[in-house]
Design brief:
This protein is an alpha/beta fold. The protein has nine helices and seven strands, in the order αααβββααβααβαββα. InterPro entries: AhpC/TSA (IPR000866), Thioredoxin-like_sf (IPR036249), Thioredoxin_domain (IPR013766), Thioredoxin_ResA/DsbE_sf (IPR050553).
């Protein structure tokens, strides 16, 4: 089956790069398209609309459909890249015998920044969990994310900031409705729990360590 690539720009617009539901954005978009004041759509030929608009609408519909699907029940093969070194990081590189928490984030998202800071301050409780901050953003924007918002996590052996260059996360694991999105997989690679949007740090710790 042909691999379907989703525009990062379209995805970022829908997710809002904050803890905002994309259902609201989609509803607003649909309303704007359907209700042009004084514009009768009956019998109107939409074939003249620009290819770019058609493509954007198709991509948005694709993201909407994917976001309704459950995350991968078993962690699939993936290839991310370490932000600092550019070295590839795959499923085979995950340390054995530990749970893994994947956090899909955007470096400019205030909610993502807050969660990173909360996790950093509670690192002692999470030192036995593999923690991966994953983003499709430009690596230059991700380079100092932990130094700025989660300095206690810098240099920790179980923490990585990974660049999802090929959109493997949304292609293979899940398309969330909100950022940050958390996915906890067991040491055997089975999905334990997931959520998107804000959660209190006590709840996050509980889910990571249970």
């Amino acid at each position: 089956m042909k691999k379907m690539m989703i525009s990062t720009l379209i995805l970022s617009t829908i997710l809002g790069f904050s803890s905002c539901s994309n259902s609201t954005n989609n509803t607003n978009t649909a309303t704007e398209v359907e209700n042009h004041e004084g514009h009768d759509h009956s019998g109107h030929d939409h074939s003249t609309h620009s290819p770019e608009a058609t493509t954007a609408e198709a991509q948005q519909q694709t993201v909407e459909e994917l976001s309704q699907k459950a995350p991968a029940p078993v962690l699939p093969e993936f290839t991310f890249y370490k932000v600092k070194s550019g070295i590839s990081y795959t499923q085979q590189d995950i340390p054995k015998g530990k749970k893994s928490a994947f956090i899909l984030f955007d470096p400019s998202c205030g909610h993502c920044q807050l969660e990173a800071g909360q996790i950093a301050k509670n690192y002692a409780k999470l030192k036995n969990i593999n923690i991966y901050f994953v983003s499709m953003n430009d690596p230059a924007l991700m380079a100092n994310f932990l130094e700025t918002f989660g300095k206690e996590l810098v240099g920790k052996p179980n923490v990585e900031v990974l660049y999802d260059k090929n959109q493997d996360f949304i292609q293979k694991i899940h398309v969330p409705k909100q950022f940050p999105a958390n996915y906890v997989y067991t040491a055997e690679g089975k999905l334990q729990s997931y959520w998107d949007g804000d959660r209190k740090i006590e709840e996050i710790i509980k889910e990571y360590t249970k």
